[in-house]
TrEMBL record:
It comes from the Bacteria. Keywords: Exonuclease, Hydrolase, Metal-binding, Nuclease, RNA-binding, Zinc. This is Ribonuclease J. CDD domains: RNaseJ_MBL-fold. Pfam families: Lactamase_B_2 (PF12706), RMMBL (PF07521), RNase_J_b_CASP (PF22505). Residues 29-230 form the Metallo-beta-lactamase domain. One of its GO terms (molecular function) is metal ion binding.
Length: 459
């Protein structure tokens, strides 16, 4: 039965288990998901994207520096919101909390490392002491309203990534968040395969899963494989080396610090988010004590061949450190002809143009730019599952239904095809605002609610 809530919005009955994405389905980034059961909603992730228009279908529309999914549906029904789960500390999953929590006003559930990252972000607000953050440990089960949520350890490109098993009397669903199968992740433990295999005995009614790399065959590269590639490229460089990577990728930062040490360089980080993540990693004992960083103030005094800088802005974000270096407007460093920029990151779909603009600025000044497809050895490892990893997950879990999320239409479609190829009988694909009925009978109600984007003002 479907009940009616405020504003005529749909509300799940006790026999229902629903998935309702507000962001991140039909697009990459801005993840915001709702699960509905028994008259309540549970939010999973609350992320942002960068340098995006509010209407992605209008190529001429002005872009905003930070954009989040519009939470209007759930803020109009706050009495039904049981809580918010954050699966991991990437900006496209956690980045909107500091802006939207005053509208959500619900408890937040996450693991200790992600909680520490969130507290640092909230420390810049005037409501940090009002946010209730409940820390959850590996394998722990927590009751959140009418939902039972269990944290399942996975691997991704940062510490503490978790999938969530959501259980109700109506259905059992695994929400993967971002993940991959990495046998040697550099930081943290490998994926907990035994825990995933045991879930098949429950059984699992549906998996709502990451589709980012569904177009890529085979297995993804292990994080540990990046060391040799980054070392080889660094040793070829005679001038300064500036590396662009995602600031939350602590494993990559540790690898780069080891590369710098082996290559006779001193490493510094440029960008507030990088500094925050390194500080958090140190606090949790994830940064090796023997790997020293220099402060960014000292970089300009070193000979070029002794410098390695890791900078924010690998997606061409206009105010980030890499773009300021490309514009020759960074206060701490002026790059010269003969220096090299290494982009140790994937190009997120939609960011091709700003990255290309940034590359052209460097090239015009005689500064080489190296990307992952330019090298023989890997200089980047994706944090998302390729096709063989998706197949392995579904062999472990044997779900009755697969709902692809976190991807554009072509990623979602291929993800669904992969699931069917290995014997999953039912798949459902849709976009933000579609209501996915997992129980009692799997189906989709297209355009069940209106969704959109809102700009986020940052100082």
């Amino acid at each position: 039965m479907v009940l009616m809530g405020n504003g005529g919005q749909v509300v799940p009955a006790s026999s229902d288990f629903w998935f309702l994405p507000l962001g991140g389905t039909g697009e990459i980034g801005m993840n915001m998901n709702l699960y509905g059961h028994g008259g309540q909603w549970l939010m999973v992730d609350c992320g942002v994207s960068f340098d995006e228009p509010l209407n992605p279908d209008d190529a001429g529309e002005v872009k905003h520096e930070v954009v989040a999914p519009d939470p209007k549906f759930i803020t109009d029904n706050l009495d039904l919101l049981a809580g918010l789960i954050i699966t991991h500390a990437h900006e496209d999953h956690i980045g909107a909390v500091e802006d939207l929590w005053p509208r959500l006003k619900c408890p937040i559930y996450t693991t200790p490392y992600t909680a520490a990252v969130l507290r640092r972000k909230l420390s810049y607000t005037n409501f940090a002491d009002k946010v209730r953050i409940i820390e959850v440990n590996d394998g722990e089960t927590v009751t959140i309203g009418v939902f039972q949520a269990t944290w399942i350890r996975l691997t991704h490109s940062l510490p503490d990534p978790y999938g969530i098993l959501l259980e109700t009397p109506a259905a059992r669903v695994v929400h993967t968040g971002d993940w991959k199968i990495d046998r040697d992740p550099v930081i943290g433990a490998p994926i907990d395969a035994s825990a995933l295999q045991q879930l098949a005995n429950i059984p699992i009614d549906a998996v709502v899963g990451d589709s980012t790399n569904a177009l890529k065959p085979g297995w993804s590269v292990s994080e540990a494989e990046c060391f040799e590639g980054l070392l080889a490229e660094t040793k070829r460089c005679e001038g300064r080396v500036v590396v662009g990577c995602f600031s939350s990728n602590i494993a990559r930062l540790v690898t780069l610090a080891k590369v710098a040490e082996r290559a006779g360089r001193r490493m510094a980080v440029f960008g507030r988010s990088l500094e925050r993540h390194v500080a958090t990693a140190r606090a949790f004992g994830l940064w090796p004590d023997d790997l020293e960083l220099i402060t960014h103030q000292h970089v300009g005094y070193l000979p070029p061949h002794e410098v390695m800088v890791v900078a924010t802005g690998c997606q061409g974000e206009p105010r980030a450190a890499l773009s300021r270096l490309a514009d020759d407007s960074h206060p701490m460093l002026a790059m010269d002809k003969g220096d090299t920029v290494i982009l140790s990151a994937m190009v997120i779909p939609g960011n091709e143009a700003p990255i290309d603009t940034m590359k052209k600025k460097f090239s015009a000044r005689g500064i080489a730019v190296i990307q992952k497809d330019d090298t023989e050895l890997p200089i980047h490892a994706s944090g998302h599952p390729n096709q063989e990893e998706l197949k392995q997950l579904y062999r472990w879990l044997t779900p009755a239904l697969v709902i692809p999320t976190h991807g554009e239409s072509q990623h979602l479609k291929r993800h669904a095809e992969i699931a069917r190829e290995i014997g999953i009988k039912r798949t459902l694909t849709g976009v933000n605002g579609d209501l996915f009925r997992i129980a009692p009978i799997p189906s989709i109600r297209r355009k069940a609610i209106s969704t959109g984007r809102i700009p986020i003002a940052r100082s």
